[in-house]
Each structure stands twice: as C-alpha cells, then as structure tokens.
Design brief:
WH-like_DNA-bd_sf (chains A, B), 6 strands, HTH_HxlR (chains A, B), homodimer, DNA-binding (chains A, B), Arc Repressor Mutant, subunit A, globular, WH_DNA-bd_sf (chains A, B), DNA-binding, 159 residues
Chain lengths: 159, 159
DNA sequence: GCGCTGACTCAAGTAATCCGGAGCCAGCAA
DNA sequence: TTGCTGGCTCCGGATTACTTGAGTCAGCGC
C-alpha cells in the first residue's frame, strides 16, 4: 500500500474532499452564514444584521448555499404581512454542524480572550456540553496525532 | 437562563470563537495549507506545488500561520545543501486536525464524485478508519440535531 | 573568489469579495 | 389606487486574495 505521507508527491489532491467542501463554503462569510443558521437565524435581514455583513454579500451566500443544497427556501407568512421565504437547513446543511462545532471548539481552546466564548453547545435533554471527538471504526477513542492518512477509492497516482 | 435560539437578537457574536478562528484560517488557501501540513508537507516549495497556488500566496499564509502559532519554523539541513527552515505543526496547529477532518468528512459524504475520495484517516495502530463524532460531557453520543446553543462565560447581552 | 541552486520576495495586474447607497418590486393596508 | 414596508438587487468603488514573472539572497561546491 502506498505510504501517503512519505510519497506525498506520488498522488494528487485534485479530487480532495477538503477542496470540494471549500468550493461550497470556502469564504469567511459562507461559514458565518452557516453558523447563524445553526443559531436559529432564517431570514434575510437577520443574517445581514447578526453577522455584520452587507446585504449583497448575504444575498450571494444564501443563493450559493441554497444552490449547493445546504439551505432551502420555504415560504412563510406573518399575519398582516406578505408571503416571504425563509432559509432553513437541509439534512446536507445540518450535517455541516460538526465543521462549525470543530471551528468553535478550536477557537474556544486557542483564541478566546479572558472572558471566554459567548456560546457553547449542549446536548438537548441531558444539558451537558457537547464537543467533538475522533473515533475509529473499531470503537477506539483517537487522539490528535494518532491518525495517519491512508488511500481512498479515488486515489489518483501521478504519471 | 437566556434562550439563545429564541432571543438571538438579545446577544452579540462579536467575541464568537468561530469568528476568531476564521480570523486566523478564514481563507481557502490557509485551510489548504493546514491540510497539506497534516499530509506531511513541511517545505515552502512543496506547499506551493501540492496545493497548486502561487508562491507569494504560500509565503503569506505560512507567515500568518506561523505568527498565529499554528506552525513553527525549524532549521533543517540536507547533506550538501545549505541550512533551510521547514514548517512544522505546533500543538496548537495539531489540534486543528479535527477541523480539517470535519471538512473532509463532510466532503466525503456530500461532495464526492463516483470514484470517491483520494484519502481517508486511519487510526495508527489498529488501522481502522477515523471519523469525528459528537459527545456530551455525560458521555452520551450526540447526533446532529440533538444540540442546542447555551450561553458561555463571555456572553454579551445587547443594550 | 565564482557560479549555481533553491527558498523566498517584490511588483504589477487580475479576480473575487465586500461595502454603502440607491433602487426595484410585491403585496398588504387603507 | 395609492402609499408604505421590507425583502432583495443593482451599481460603483474600495479592499483583499491570488497569479505571473522577475528578482534577491544565502551559502554550498568548486
């Protein structure tokens, strides 16, 4: 089997899943829109105000994330108001939560000031704080540094 | 206790850990540099070639990530060559692996083509594939959708 | 010393992103 | 029908990110 670490030049990352993911959410504003969606925001103007970016930027990100299938537009209607669309997470979008959680956790550990982070994640029901851990298919808990890259089905060797 | 989801307008994300994290690695190229570092790359030109971005961009990212403490420069010397510096992950940088892994996993699930991803992560030792899971402080496995945001120590209420 | 190599940098141009402000438009209220 | 509101879009300019190509510079081999 190819040792990916030692023969790093022997294979390409053209079809890397990280790269593909970043094609969808590779901007700062896209990731913040996703964070806001997980914090319950669903309406155009709320995204803009709460994230603190301009409306054209929000419009572009919402359009892209909807086209990519992470969000979907659904109509809503408040009494006395016209029908509008709101943006809700699809299963594909919900599954992105682990990325947001990993980003938040890293920041909690390495980039907070003395007052600490403004929000955390709790397990609904038991209320205990949620964090990400790595686990292998054999059920072992895996620590940072105990992993190694191995070839996947789409590995492309050069030359 | 404040219900963060319902009263989203009552608090601000100025000191959000996600935002702080993105101040360090908020660009596509920074995240790809980190991916490469985890794939064993440590030298300037290798980063540029393997990621497929220009050298000035690599120089800027390496400088930023080093200043932020995710990478450190250490001298190396090949026989018959002058002394050079290579870039290695610090503990702060190593801890970023869960973010890269979460990005890769999301891409593996939602953004691969028919041939599949080129690489995966294995537990060194047992060799089984590694993935991220969420767990609460009580030890429960937590599924996507079973979490809710709760106030942290740095919560800032508006007004 | 001299040339060579390779790591890195500078400069200039292009593309993407973002902001502020103005404007469009649907449809509810009156 | 008219006015109004709010969701969204368009435009022009500023900033940032990135590319290409040329250049600098350290130090090893000779």
């Amino acid at each position: 089997m190819v040792d990916l670490l030692k023969d790093r030049d022997a294979w390409s990352t053209d079809n890397c899943s990280v790269t593909r993911t970043l094609e969808v959410v590779g901007t700062r504003s896209a990731l913040l829109v996703m964070r806001e969606a997980f914090l319950g925001t669903s309406r155009f103007h709320d995204f803009a105000r709460r994230i603190g970016i301009g409306e054209p930027a929000v419009a572009a990100r919402l359009k892209e994330l909807t086209a990519a299938g992470l969000l979907e537009r659904t109509p809503y209607r408040e009494p006395g108001r016209r029908t509008r669309d709101e943006y809700r997470l699809t299963p594909k979008g919900c599954d992105f939560y682990r990325v947001i959680l990993a980003l938040r956790e890293w920041g909690d550990t390495w980039a907070t000031d003395e007052q600490g982070p403004p929000w955390r994640s709790a397990h609904r029901g038991c209320g205990a704080e949620v964090h990400t851990v790595m686990r292998c298919a054999e059920g072992h808990d895996v620590q940072v540094g105990e992993t190694t890259p191995v070839p996947g089905p789409g590995l492309v060797l050069r030359g």
